[in-house]
Each structure stands twice: as C-alpha cells, then as structure tokens.
Design goal:
This protein is mostly helical and 363 residues long. It has a domain of 157 residues. It has 15 helices and no strands. The longest helix is centred in the first third of the chain and has 51 residues. The two termini are 38 Å apart. The relative contact order is 0.09.
Length: 363
C-alpha cells in the first residue's frame, strides 16, 4: 500500500470518528469519563496483579476504593460547597452593584489620576464585565440542563460511569492485544512507537495535568478561606477546576476574588493585596515547580492551539467536547510531530540527492 493510500485511510478514519462523536454527543459523557477513569486507574490494577491478585479482583478492589473515597468526600464537602456556590450566585448582583457604587464614589480621584478619557473607559469596562457576569449567572441553569446536569442525568451518570470503568479495566489487556493484532505487520514497530508517544502525552494530560488541577483547586480554596474571603471555598475550587483551560482559571479566580475582596475589606487594602498575592504567587509556583514536575514536556502543546481546540470541540460537542479537547489535542500534536519528521526525511524536503540542500542550509 502506498503512503498516499495510507494517509487517505487514516484521514477517512478520523472523519468517521468525528462524525460518530457528533452524532452520539448527547450520551457520551459517562463513557468518556469512564474511559478516562479506566486509563487513570489501569497502572494501579497492574500493580495489584504483580502482587498475585487476579485481574477481576484487582479491578474490583481499585474501583471500590476510589468510589469509597469519592463518596466520602462528597458527603463531607459537597453540602458546604453547594451552599457556598448558591450563596455566591445569589450575592453576585449585590457585589456588582457595590463595585459600581465604589467606582462612582471614587470617580473624582480616578478622573484626577487617569484623566477623564481613561476613567470613562475604565467605567465602561467595569460595566461590561458586570453585565457579562450577570448574563452568565442568568443562563447558568439552562446551560446545566443542556449538558445533562439534571436530576435524572446526574443519577444516570453516577450509575453508568463506574460500570463503564469496571468493564474497560477488566478487559484492558485484551483490548490492547486486540488492537495490536489489527496493526499492519510491516508498519507495526513504527505505529507502536507513535502509540507509545501518544500514551506518554495522554498520561501527561490525564495524570499530570489532572494532578495540577486538583492541587490548584485545593490551594486556592484553602488559601482564600484562610484569609477570610467570602465564598473563598467556592471561588477557589472553581478557579482551580477551570485551570485546565490556559489562563481562564487564573483570570476568573483573580478577577472574582479581587472584586469580592474590594467590597468586603476596603479600605483595608492590605487584604486586597493579600488576595492578589495568593494568585500571583501560586502562578509562579505552578509554572516553575508543579507543571514541570508533574507534566513536564509530555504534552508539548502550544497554549494558543489548546485554546482553539477547547473552543472548537466545545462548539461541536458541548461539554463532552471540552472533556475531549485536551486529550485529542495531545494526540493530534503527536501525529503532527510524526508527520513533520517524516516530511523532513522525505525527498520532497531533502531533494532527489538528499544532501546538498541540507548542507547549504546549515552553512
């Protein structure tokens, strides 16, 4: 089979996959989360197998342990978090009005400091941000319904996701062997190398970036609660969980926390500075310590490409698209790097003789 035919087959396969995802996007959520959970827990199951557990018992022990931990955390923290989120949504219009009132009160000083034109621009920006925040709050119930977060949807998701994860974990080795058996024999070594690169990238996404996300949420929630910020637990968790979108979690949490801190603590501006320091300091820690240690270079995705993938998949597949965007972007990144390497090794890039053009480019 020629290289052209191979490329056409893989492109056709990807097109069919995207069409199927779009057709079944309404029912994919428990399957996507179950598959991610199985991928995440597979190393633990493999470790138990090395300790003489059967595959079935290892799967049951790992999955039951995870379910026990999740259910315990749910009953410990969800009532408090739910109360804070509901209180934040109810209080948000009041915070916006208070901020606008403070801006009007400070308008003479702001005009003197910035000048009338820039002061007017600042006031317009605050009003625009306030209207967007209120609009988001107004549409939030409808959005939750659209992604299936109704009572029946949550119950179905809660029951179906562990079942999907269990059966995928139980037959994981068989599925891997089945996929290996379908690979073309002549290209099996090369395809396995690509799959290993994809596995490393996916591990960086699901395990590494997932760990960073959870640490972010825990830190922001704890730090904001300790400084006494109203609804600090809810704001910190939301900011941390949104950090899978580049800059969005930081910007959302920073703006919301500083706005609440100004209304709550002013004229004690040191508390406002403290809230700012929490976000700015943690961004330094995340970028220079957490991310290199937990994720490293395994993802290797440009933030602009990642944001495009999130917007594109979110527009096509809704909430499920947001969950799939980062892993699929990581896979596409591996395939693009492989394609570039093959192109640079081809006569199309090197020319018929393969040497002089490359040598002249280095001189």
């Amino acid at each position: 089979m020629t290289l052209r035919n191979q490329v056409l087959i893989w492109v056709a396969f990807l097109v069919v996959l995207v069409v199927l995802l779009w057709l079944f996007r309404g029912i994919l959520l428990p399957f996507v989360v179950g598959a991610a959970l199985a991928y995440l827990l597979n190393p633990l199951v493999n470790q138990l197998q090395t300790w003489r557990f059967s595959r079935g018992w290892a799967t049951a022990v790992v999955l039951l342990s995870v379910i026990t931990i999740v259910v315990s955390l749910f009953f410990m923290f969800v009532p408090l978090i739910g109360q804070q989120i509901i209180g934040l949504i109810q209080r948000m219009p009041g915070y916006v009005s208070d901020l606008q009132g403070l801006a009007i009160r400070w308008s003479p000083e702001i005009n003197e400091w910035l000048g009338p034109e820039r002061a007017a621009q600042l006031e317009a920006t605050i009003s625009d941000m306030a209207s967007q925040a209120l609009g988001f709050i107004a549409t939030l119930p409808a959005e939750l319904v659209n992604i299936g977060l109704t009572g029946a949807g949550v119950i179905g998701f809660t029951l179906l996701t562990p079942v999907v994860a269990f059966y995928l974990l139980l037959d994981w080795e068989g599925m891997v062997r089945g996929m290996q058996g379908l690979l073309p024999r002549d290209s099996r070594t090369e395809i396995n190398q690509i799959l290993n690169d994809i596995d490393k990238s996916m591990a960086g996404v699901i395990r590494g970036q997932g760990g960073v996300l959870l640490i972010d949420a825990a830190f922001y929630a704890t730090a904001l609660s300790l400084v006494g910020l109203n609804f600090g637990l809810a704001v910190g968790l939301i900011a941390g969980l949104l950090s899978f979108i580049p800059f969005v979690g930081f910007v959302f949490g920073f703006v919301l926390s500083v706005g609440i801190a100004i209304v709550q603590f002013w004229p004690n501006y040191w508390m406002v500075v403290g809230v700012c320091a929490i976000f700015l300091g943690w961004q330094f820690v995340e970028g220079n310590i957490l991310y290199p240690k937990l994720v490293g270079g395994s993802i290797n995705i440009n933030p602009v490409w990642l944001m495009f993938a999130l917007l594109a998949f979110g527009a096509l597949f809704g909430f499920v698209g947001l969950l799939l965007a980062v892993p699929l972007a990581a896979i596409v990144g591996v395939l693009v790097r492989y394609g570039v390497a093959k192109y640079k090794a081809s006569t199309l890039y090197l020319g018929q003789n393969g040497g002089p053009g490359d040598a002249s480019s280095q001189s």
